[in-house]
Design a protein that fits this description.
Blueprint (H helix, E strand, L loop, with lengths): L1 H9 L4 E6 L3 H12 L4 E3 L12 E5 L6 H12 L3 E6 L4 H4 L10 H5 L5 E3 L9 H7 L21
Parallel strand pairs: 1-3, 1-4, 2-3, 4-5
């Protein structure tokens, strides 16, 4: 998991807020965080921004809550936020019609911090729409690889 390795090596203890669209992903990220010896927590309304972990896992439904917005703004203000990351970002487009909380993600994308969208299945023609969904008009795509696996023969 390159994101956690990057956090371990380069973020200097700052916080990455990781927005996860599926609850099952929380366990996976907790396991990987332990592997890289990173502090982590699942965001709740009682989370303390002045004592936040290196990774703050957030259920995507919480993105509509003002308390989360205040929490993230506080982390930015005290200089602790490394970035906001969205895993399985293609789901932001696929689930928009039945998950109203996704409409609020534009607010997070407009914050003055780096935003990272991670996906393995977003086609090139949807990249602009995906970034627009999170409020970014200017963006750069890194490490774009073909989504169709190459067949290997023996």
């Amino acid at each position: 998991m390159p994101l956690l390795l990057s956090i371990a090596r380069y973020d200097g203890g700052n916080t990455t807020v990781l927005i996860l669209p599926l609850l099952a992903m929380h366990d996976e990220y907790e396991m990987r965080a332990r592997k890289y010896k990173l502090s982590f927590e699942t965001w709740t309304i009682n989370s303390n921004p002045s004592a936040c972990s290196q990774i703050v896992l957030v259920a995507i439904e919480a993105c509509a809550w003002d308390a989360l917005k205040t929490y993230i703004m506080t982390i930015i203000r005290i200089g602790r936020l490394a970035c906001i990351a969205f895993d399985e970002a293609h789901l932001l487009l696929q689930h928009l019609s039945f998950r109203p909380c996704l409409e609020m993600l534009e607010y997070l994308g407009r914050m003055s911090t780096p935003v990272l969208l991670m996906t393995a299945t977003c086609s090139r023609c949807l990249e602009g729409k995906l970034f627009e969904q999170v409020g970014r008009k200017v963006y750069q795509v890194y490490d774009r690889r073909p989504t169709v696996p190459k067949l290997h023969t023996r």
